[in-house]
Amino acid sequence: MKHDIRLTVNGDTYTLAVEPWRTLNEVLREDLNLTGTKLGCGSGDCGACTVMVDGRSISSCLTLAVEMDGKTILTVEGLAPSGESLHPIQEAFIEKGAIQCGFCTPGMEISALNLLTANPSPSDAQIRSAISGNLCRCTGYNKIVDAIAEAGRQMKPHAKVRR
Ligand code: FES
Ligand code: FES
C-alpha cells in the first residue's frame, strides 16, 4: 500500500505516493529524476548518496522516503544559486582538481556544505573528519581537502546557502 508524502526538494514541493519500503535515494533518482545523488554501496558505507535533510547531511540510501514526509531536502542539483553560476564549493572542486570520475562528488560536496555551514574555517583534520564517510577511489583526498578549505574561504564573505 502506498503512502502520500510531501517533500520540498531544492525549493520545489512534491506530493508523491510511495511504497513504505522505498528509500529516499530511490525516490529522488527514480521518481524526481534527480540523478545527481548517486547510489554506491546502498548500505551506508560510501557516502555517494549524501543529501541534506532539514539542514543536516544524511545517507539517502538508508533513509525511507515515508520518513521524509514534510521535510526539506537539498541535493547537489540545488547547490548552485542559479543556472548561471556555481556554488563556491563547486567552483573550488573544479579549481583545485578535486573531481576525477565524479561519482563521489555530489556526496562530497553535500558533506562539505554540512561542514562549512557550521564551520567556514575548518582545519585539515576537521575537513578529513567531515568527509570520513565519503569514499573516493580516484583523487587520494588531498585535492578534495584543499577544495573544501578554499570553499570555506570563499563562502565566508558572501555565503549563500539553501538548506
Ligand atoms: S550509497 Fe548510501 S552510503 Fe553508499
Ligand atoms: S572522483 Fe572518482 S570516486 Fe571520487
From TrEMBL:
<feature type="domain" description="2Fe-2S ferredoxin-type">
    <location>
        <begin position="3"/>
        <end position="79"/>
    </location>
</feature>
<dbReference type="GO" id="GO:0051537">
    <property type="term" value="F:2 iron, 2 sulfur cluster binding"/>
</dbReference>
<protein>
    <submittedName>
        <fullName>Oxidoreductase</fullName>
    </submittedName>
</protein>
<dbReference type="Pfam" id="PF01799">
    <property type="entry name" value="Fer2_2"/>
</dbReference>
<dbReference type="InterPro" id="IPR002888">
    <property type="entry name" value="2Fe-2S-bd"/>
</dbReference>
<keyword id="KW-0411">Iron-sulfur</keyword>
<keyword id="KW-0479">Metal-binding</keyword>
<keyword id="KW-0560">Oxidoreductase</keyword>
<dbReference type="Pfam" id="PF00111">
    <property type="entry name" value="Fer2"/>
</dbReference>
<dbReference type="InterPro" id="IPR012675">
    <property type="entry name" value="Beta-grasp_dom_sf"/>
</dbReference>
<dbReference type="GO" id="GO:0016491">
    <property type="term" value="F:oxidoreductase activity"/>
</dbReference>
<keyword id="KW-0001">2Fe-2S</keyword>
<dbReference type="InterPro" id="IPR006058">
    <property type="entry name" value="2Fe2S_fd_BS"/>
</dbReference>
<dbReference type="InterPro" id="IPR036010">
    <property type="entry name" value="2Fe-2S_ferredoxin-like_sf"/>
</dbReference>
<dbReference type="InterPro" id="IPR001041">
    <property type="entry name" value="2Fe-2S_ferredoxin-type"/>
</dbReference>
<dbReference type="InterPro" id="IPR051452">
    <property type="entry name" value="Diverse_Oxidoreductases"/>
</dbReference>
<dbReference type="InterPro" id="IPR036884">
    <property type="entry name" value="2Fe-2S-bd_dom_sf"/>
</dbReference>
<keyword id="KW-0408">Iron</keyword>
<dbReference type="GO" id="GO:0046872">
    <property type="term" value="F:metal ion binding"/>
</dbReference>
